[in-house]
Amino acid sequence: MAKVEEDHTGVPLLEMRGIVKVFPGVRALDGVDLQVRAGEVHCLLGQNGAGKSTLIKVLAGAHTIDEGEVLWQGQPASLSSPVAALKQGIATIYQELDLVDWLSVGENIFLGHELSRGGFSQRATTRRRARELLVRLGHPEISPSREVGTLSAAGKQIVSMARALSRDARLIVMDEPSAVLDGEEVENLFTVVTDLAASGVAVVYISHRLEEIRRIGDRITVLKDGRTAATGLDARSTPTVQLIKLMTGRSIEYVFPPRSITPPPPQTPPLLSVDKLSRRGEFEDVTFDVRPGEIVGMAGLVGAGRSEIIETIFGARRSDSGSVQVRGTALRNGSVRAAVAAGVGLCPEERKSQGLILDQAVYQNISMATMGRFSAAGFIRDSAERSAAMKVAATVDVRPADPDRIVRTLSGGNQQKIVLARWLLRECRVLLLDEPTRGVDVGARSEIYLLIRNLADSGVAVVVVSSEVEEVLGLADRVLVVGAGRVLHDGPAADIDENQVLDLIMAGAAA
Amino acid sequence: MTEKSADGAQLDSGDVNLPARAVPAEIAPTVTGGGSPRRSVPPGLMRNLGLIIALAVLCVVGVITAGDRFASTDNLLTILRLASVIGVVSIGMTFVITAGGIDLSVGAVVGLASVWATTTGTQLLAQDVHWVIMVSTALLVGTAAGLLNGLMVAYGRIVPFIATLAMMAAARGLAEIIANRQTQIIRVREFLDVFTSDLLGIPVIVWIFALVAVAGWVLLNRTTFGRRTFAIGGNPEAARLAGIRVKRQTMLLYGLVGLSAGIAAVMIMARTTAGSSTHGTLYELDAIAAVVIGGTLLSGGRGTIVGTVFGVLIFTTLTNVFTLNNLSISAQAIAKGLIIVAAVLLQQRVAARARGG
User: Fold this and answer.
1) In the prediction, which pLDDT does B14 show?
2) CA-CA distances (angstroms) from residue A94 to A206, A211, B132, B285?
3) What is the rounded distance in angstroms from the CA atom of residue B113 to the CA atom of residue B127?
4) pLDDT higher than 50, residue B10
């Protein structure tokens, strides 16, 4: 444990010592130390389950601690409730933003501490002060009277930040703020975060993406198994290997599995062919083939139409023109059932809202697309279903290997494996993966990459959509670059590098 | 870190019925096959412990306050007979609520089906041919009304609350027109003979309730139909993307509630020896209350037939105890209200614990 010496710039804004939080049966936090200075961007790293969420909730006053002490500007402080935390000057921006969609931007910013006189809301003042905050955040284009529900994810995030500032927050906690943003929006976010830090606000920044932390972070604290594994690391100079080691307790030599040695011969007929697929306002003339054993990666910005293309191929959206063929047979337009029957499976982007039934058991989630196989005359043969589901779960290594576990309690990586297992059990021939590693920690990522590669090697045609160019290039055999609803490039992954992809994306975004 | 749950990975175990917790979270991908010994403790018993206790307490109160008038075979049969009609409706209601829906029209559909099955025309035909005509008329009317609800909800995309509210108003109105607001006395002897008789000392309508409850349990817990019901209630989008025909299933579910209302209509016709447009008034509220206190989540995704049966029994026993003690219907209503609130409060706690919150 690399503990930082007494801060040379004076008393730290926030200091936590030996924080312990016990839930029935588990010590979620088991001795966490954290020291945050005013005006710094302090990054919190850790795998899923390392205790980051619990720590955030402690900071937000949503959880009370069982042991340890919290010092605020050197004075013992109690974060006994969300209101108490806000009073101290700690504001938290959760990943699922807590905004009211039907209220205006201004109303959301001052939610809970509405500006009023004699019980009447001061609408003009609210708008004026809201505008000031938005200008301070560099987003004067957001109108305070606009309904929040009509804003993009990035816009909503700005509103959340404005709300934090409206409370005179001295420390802002951001839980994976970049996860829902595309490249340009992330740039804006970085500018805002840097400006905030420059104005003396401390930012606790949580992200899975190391390159982000390198760019905007000042110092890093690594959590592992509810303890502080290291704190006060320099965000720019600490080697990646060391960070990964600290997070996982092992070093990853290569993250991406090697490509198959024997690529399918060029004359192999495609398993999936998409021909001039169009959907008005979303994408146009999308044409590509995927052969058995091939992984096709789809790169592009959020909003370029990637998810829309994938979902249309799957029949979850209806195309306006064009066709999708599996093994030469056209799929019925707009029919998920037809796609599933033809052997197509989709792991959707929003795993929790689109992929899983969170309050059901692991085995039931796995067998969801295959129930018919385990039933006779409508009656489910429970034992056959369980053993088949768990056999697949073992192949993808869902941990713990407990069929009755409720899916909600599993980590992001294991939840992703369950969605994969569902289509594995169905013996899918075509697998569409939309952001398969979103919210999955570094260690589990490489497992999922390996799984995808093994699936391809077994003859499955795979399409992977990802916002991370590196992921597309490292994993795929062939790369499609999508911009503004069009396929801008289609070629072998070996023939293109990250900069070229980025150039294409930039050009596509400008078009 | 994407979810609140990851830290609280083991927190679900606050629930007593999770013997799975005792199994170490082994990393090794070795999986023991299907029938695991960990399921040897019936989880249902633990889950329904609160309901069993509530029912037991009510019985004790009944014995103390009403003595032998409560604790007699006759009174027990009275309770069961009372429970049967609303019980059948509640079983159907359990399905739609588990699937995340609601059906406010069940009471009105009971009335409509009872009226339709007892018109002079239907009765004459039944006398000429067979009493089954009356039964099948009631079942058909109920199912048709239910399917119409399903059509509105699944394909018309009208929220269930509104669609079934419309059906509730319309079905009651239609029943009044058909019956001309008259009570239609049943003159088909064979019908009454069959449905008011006893089998092994137990009234036929109680048998029907038992049968419907068992069939409902099997359907919900042992069939693909039931599993799809849970899936739709738990996450309709995930169900759709897994290839489940969500719309079709939704429509069938409303058809099923309609069928249960049809069965209930036959039972109430037998109990009152008449069809009436006022039959089934407020059944929707009693049924929803019974389902909710039984432990089915109003938000969908979790449902229990056993809980519903207990919910119905608790309400009917409560009514019975109050009646035996000459307490007013108004007092019963207050007690019912309190029980519903208490049950929902309890449910929320269980749900929060399951989420590790």
Assistant:
1) 36
2) 10, 21, 62, 39
3) 18
4) no
Q: Residue B101: helix, strand or coil by DSSP?
A: coil
Does B27 have pLDDT greater than 50? no
Place of tokens 């069961």: B80
Interstrand relation of A219-224 and A344-347 (parallel, antiparallel or unpaired): unpaired
Chain A closest-CA separation from residue B19 CA (Å): 10
> Once rounded to an integer, what is the mean pLDDT over residues A143-161?
85
Mean pLDDT across the stretch B237-251?
90
> DSSP letter string over B271-337?
HHTEE-TTTTTTHHHHHHHHHHHHT--TTSS---HHHHHHHHHHHHHHHHHHHHTT--HHHHHHHHH
Are domains A1-89+170-251 and A272-510 of this chain identical in fold? yes
User: Interior CA angle at A281 toward A277 and A287, to 5°?
Assistant: 20
Contacts of B99 in chain A (CB under 8 A): none
What is the pLDDT averaged over residues A255-260? 73
Tell me what pLDDT residue B140 has: 96
CB interface of A with B, residues 34-53, below 8 Å: 46, 48-53
CB of A327 within 8 Å of a chain B CB? The answer is no
CA distance A366 to chain B (A): 10
d(CA A365, CA A240): 36
Answering whether pTM is above 0.90, one says no
Q: Which residues numbered 353-392 in A keep a CB inside 8 Å of some CB on B?
A: 353-360, 364, 368-369, 371-372, 375, 378-380, 382-387, 390-391
The CA dihedral of B326, B331, B335, B340, to the nearest 10 degrees, is 130
Residue ranges of domains in chain B, CATH in brackets = 67-354 (1.10.3470)
Q: Where are the domains of chain A?
A: 1-89+170-251, 99-168, 272-510
Structure tokens at A207: 């992200």
Which pLDDT score, from 0 to 100, does residue B16 have? Answer: 35
A112 torsion bin: left (phi>0), alpha (psi -120 to 50), beta (else): left
What tokens does B50 get? 């609160």
- Please indicate whether, in this complex, the C-beta atoms of A341 and B3 are within 8 angstroms of each other: no
Tens digit of each residue's pLDDT (9 = 90 or more) over B315-347: 899 888 888 888 888 888 888 888 888 877 876
Mean pLDDT taken over chain B: 83
Please say if the pLDDT value at position A72 is more than 70. yes
What mean pLDDT do residues A296-305 have? 79
Q: Pick the residue from chain B with its C-alpha nearest to A339.
A: B243
Segment A325-362, tens digit of pLDDT: 999 899 999 899 999 999 999 998 888 888 898 888 89
As a whole number, mean pLDDT of residues B274-288 equals: 92
Please count the CA atoms within 13 angstroms of the CA of B150 that sit on its side-chain side: 23
Tokens standing for residue A391: 């056999």
Comparing C-alpha atoms, which of A474, A455, A84, A45 is closest to residue A224?
A45
How many residues appear in chain B?
A: 357
* Interface confidence (ipTM) of the complex: 0.71
- For the A272-510 domain, the top CATH level (class) is alpha beta
Contact A8, A169 (CB under 8 A): no
Given this model, what pLDDT does residue A1 score? 38
Q: What's the pLDDT at A8? A: 47
Q: Is A273 left (phi over 0), alpha (psi -120 to 50) or beta?
A: beta
Q: Tokens 């079942």 appear where?
A: B139
Q: Do A316 and B241 touch (CB under 8 A)?
A: yes
Whether pLDDT at B6 is above 70: no
Tell how strand A478-483 and strand A486-492 pair up.
antiparallel
Could you report how far apart the first and last alpha carbons of chain A are, in Å?
50
Please state, in angstroms and rounded to a whole number, the distance separating the CA atoms of residues B158 and B104. 14
**CATH tag, A1-89+170-251:** 3.40.50.300
Q: What is the mean pLDDT of residues A46-75?
A: 84
- The pair phi, psi for residue B109, each rounded to 5°, is -70, -35
